[in-house]
């Protein structure tokens, strides 16, 4: 570490991104917050990345959580970094609504590890577009996508989708209401038709709840002749978590 870096560290010591406790690395979690972050490991649902109980000898591609058994998913595989609870929920909400763009650095680093499980050499990273940017001021999924694209040496298409039909906010609505509200509500930005055609797509979002928006965007990509679609999210809402 250079003398200048040592001086900067002395003035601005590294802190946990969740609670401001001292840490040894930039953009990291302290031991306590790490312990209360529900990072997803082990046996998972291959369609959404949710954790599944026990160890399985089955082909991982055959494993599905209850939600994905009940609801057809138009995409191929899904991965998620953490459950949407505890410190994980706090981090997602801070990134999404609290202008904490600094959280994109560790979040993207964690998401890269998951994305590498589904990525192809020519995958195109497509963040879900935020259609209410005047309220949130930035698209957190696009911020994550740009960092991931740079780390994985993959192209990013931040404005692949349009929303010709306005929809109400979907928070606190049932799964059926979410899917119904998004019927024909998202379309392809036609200037990117050639970009998506015959490419494997990695759809990116901060959190998956019902999967309705991810499903609508997946169908748009497949209709545009994407070769396949996989999804990667920072967090997954897990029942009873």
Question: How are the elements arranged and paired?
Answer:
Layout: H1 3-11, H2 31-35, H3 66-70, E1 78-83, H4 86-97, H5 104-115, E2 124-127, H6 133-136, H7 140-152, E3 155-156, E4 161-162, H8 175-181, E5 187-188, H9 193-196, E6 200-208, H10 212-223, E7 228-236
Parallel strand pairs: 1-7, 2-3, 2-6, 6-7
Antiparallel strand pairs: 4-5
Helix pairs in contact: 5-7
Keywords for this entry:
single chain; 241 residues; alpha/beta; Rossmann fold; 34% helix; globular
What features would you describe in this structure?
The chain is an alpha/beta fold and 241 residues long. It folds into two domains: 36 residues, no CATH class; 161 residues, 3-Layer(aba) Sandwich (Rossmann fold), CATH 3.40.50.2020. 34% of the residues lie in helices and 14% in strands. Strands 1-7-6-2-3 form a five-stranded parallel sheet. A two-stranded antiparallel sheet has the order 4-5. Strand 6, helix 10 and strand 7 form a beta-alpha-beta unit. About 3% of the residues have low confidence.
Give a summary of the structure in a few sentences.
The protein is of the alpha/beta class and 241 residues long. The chain is 34% helix and 14% strand.
């Amino acid at each position: 570490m250079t003398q200048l870096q040592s001086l900067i560290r002395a003035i601005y010591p590294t802190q946990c991104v969740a609670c401001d406790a001292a840490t040894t690395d930039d953009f990291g979690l302290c031991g306590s917050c790490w312990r209360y972050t529900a990072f997803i490991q082990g046996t998972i649902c291959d369609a959404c990345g949710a954790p599944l109980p026990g160890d399985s000898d089955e082909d991982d591609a055959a494993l599905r959580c209850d939600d994905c058994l009940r609801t057809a998913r138009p995409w191929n595989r899904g991965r998620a970094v953490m459950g949407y609870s505890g410190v994980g929920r706090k981090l997602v909400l801070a990134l999404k609504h609290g202008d904490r763009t600094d959280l994109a650095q560790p979040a993207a680093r964690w998401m890269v590890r998951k994305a590498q499980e589904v990525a192809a050499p020519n995958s195109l990273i497509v963040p879900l577009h935020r259609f209410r940017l005047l309220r949130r001021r930035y698209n957190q999924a696009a911020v994550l996508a740009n960092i991931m694209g740079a780390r994985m040496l993959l192209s990013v298409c931040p404005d692949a989708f349009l929303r010709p039909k306005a929809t109400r906010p979907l928070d606190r609505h049932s799964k059926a209401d979410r899917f119904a509200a998004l019927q024909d509500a998202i379309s392809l930005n036609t200037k990117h038709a050639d970009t998506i055609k015959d490419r494997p797509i990695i759809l990116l979002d901060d959190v998956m709840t019902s999967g309705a928006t991810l499903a609508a965007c997946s169908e748009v990509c497949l209709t545009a002749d994407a070769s396949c679609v996989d999804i990667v999210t920072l967090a997954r809402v897990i029942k009873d978590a």
